[in-house]
TrEMBL record:
Protein name: DNA damage-binding protein 2
Family designation: Belongs to the WD repeat DDB2/WDR76 family.
Compartments in which it is found: Nucleus
Ranges occupied by WD repeats: 239-281
């Protein structure tokens, strides 16, 4: 099936060059991360029993890179003797080694209905917001012993479909819901601004994203409409961009005038917000074989990751949006009483994280296959490792690393699980005392 394209190849190449220039981080920015990885490599890398690393990947069985090796690479890169890509690959390889010792060290089950949304605080690495099918929201700082903040929802029909913290005020968050609103709230539960209200039980909002730089809010509903507003609440436009529900909306982190919308009408569309004239003014329409749960940009904005409702994950590149860079076969089929599975990017490495829902009809399915969290390389699409805790064998629909990239939060039915390497070691130490 040939993708539709309504803009020239030159525009795509211009966007690719812009994203590439914005995505290059300085070596000085990477040094703290490298030093952290170096410190980790000095600790004995005993494999945690609650986490399994794929044994058929011999490249991951070699000892971790030594601290002197990483520091030497940083120095060589400064001298121009080591390429930027080689340095990034070295850091990613060290991180993959560390994943072997990740385990669940914190858990919570605060809701009477399943978890439906999850978002990390942008500046506090141990604070996460989670929403439930009943409209409840929990703001959880798992780094302290105090009780989490709990905001009661309306119950049936109030499902939280999207959460985003307010970058301009760390004590506020945006939420979209099946209640029929997209709103801004504070941590006490007060509604500060209502951006959209359907006033109809047959229409609700399924997704949202926010740009602090441009001060805009974008939300999609179950009828195919996408609405753009400024953060003051003024509606900029409201258009029916898809034939069916808009399951996900995402603004490009580097070029926030670039919008991706994913729909159960089996398409993902890319838009230039500066040139919206109607439903046919998309830059690209990317057809899929099945309804699509999510489309999210990488942190550098140069790639787009899509998750369908059956068994395919796709990666698209800014150099050629209309043709997938890679197709990853992966079982995550849709089920009515399961929060839709969505793949996500690691914030610092070119890695994809997604929960597995074993499917007996999937060609590589084996008997008694585990419900793991799978990590793929974003370039090759190759499986790099799998996380699994025998104490929590459910399906993880949502998996997100915090902005620092060292802690993973997962939503598994009623449970919210926190995975970490350093905390796992501390936990094991205290158990032995």
């Amino acid at each position: 099936m040939v993708p539709k394209k309504s803009a020239g190849t030159q525009k795509s190449l211009d966007v690719a060059r812009l994203l590439k220039s914005k995505s290059l981080r300085s070596v000085q920015e990477l040094e703290p991360e490298a030093k952290k990885l170096c410190a980790q490599s000095l600790v004995s890398s005993r494999k945690c029993e609650s986490c399994c690393l794929l044994p058929e990947l011999p490249g991951l069985q070699t000892p971790p890179r030594s601290s002197s090796s990483i520091i030497r690479d940083l120095y060589q890169q400064k001298l121009g003797k080591v390429t930027w890509s080689s340095l990034q690959q070295g850091l990613q390889k060290s991180f993959l080694h560390s994943l072997a010792s990740y385990r669940v060290f914190q858990k919570a089950a605060p809701f009477d209905r399943r978890t439906t949304s999850l978002a990390w605080h942008p500046t506090h690495p141990s604070t996460v917001a989670v929403g439930s099918k009943g409209g409840d929201i929990m703001i959880w700082n798992f780094g302290i012993k105090d009780k989490p903040i709990f905001i009661k929802g309306m119950g049936a029909g109030g499902s939280i479909t999207g959460l985003k913290f307010n970058h301009l005020n760390p004590n506020q968050f945006f939420a979209s819901s099946m209640e029929g609103t997209t709103r801004l709230q504070d941590f006490t539960g007060n509604t500060l601004q209502v951006y959209t209200r359907s006033n109809c039980c047959k229409v609700w909002f399924c997704s949202l994203d926010v740009s602090a730089k441009s001060q805009v809010v974008v939300t999609g509903d179950n009828m195919g409409h996408v609405i753009l507003l400024n953060t003051d609440g003024k509606e900029l436009w409201n258009l029916r961009m898809h034939k069916k529900k808009v399951a996900h909306v995402a603004l490009n982190p580097c070029c926030d005038w670039l919008l991706a919308t994913a729909s159960i009408d089996q398409t993902v569309k890319i838009w230039d917000l500066r040139q919206i004239k109607g439903k046919t003014s998309f830059l690209y329409s990317l057809p899929h074989r099945h309804p699509v749960n999510a489309a999210c940009f990488s942190l550098d904005g140069a790639r787009l990751l899509t998750t369908d409702q059956n068994n395919e994950i796709r990666v698209y590149s800014a150099s050629q949006w209309d043709s997938p860079l890679s197709l990853i076969s992966h079982p995550h089929r849709h089920f009515q009483h399961l929060t839709p599975i969505k793949a996500s990017w690691h914030p610092r490495h070119n890695l994809i994280v997604v929960g597995r829902y074993p499917d007996p009809n999937f060609k590589s399915c084996v008997p008694y296959e585990l419900r793991t969290i799978d990590v793929f390389d974003g370039d090759s699409g190759k499986m790099m490792c799998q996380l699994y805790d025998p104490g929590y064998s459910g399906i993880t629909s949502l998996n997100e690393f915090n902005p620092m990239g060292d802690t993973l939060a997962t939503a598994m039915g009623y449970h919210i699980l926190i995975w970490n390497q350093e905390e796992a070691r501390s936990h094991e130490y205290h158990k032995r005392q």
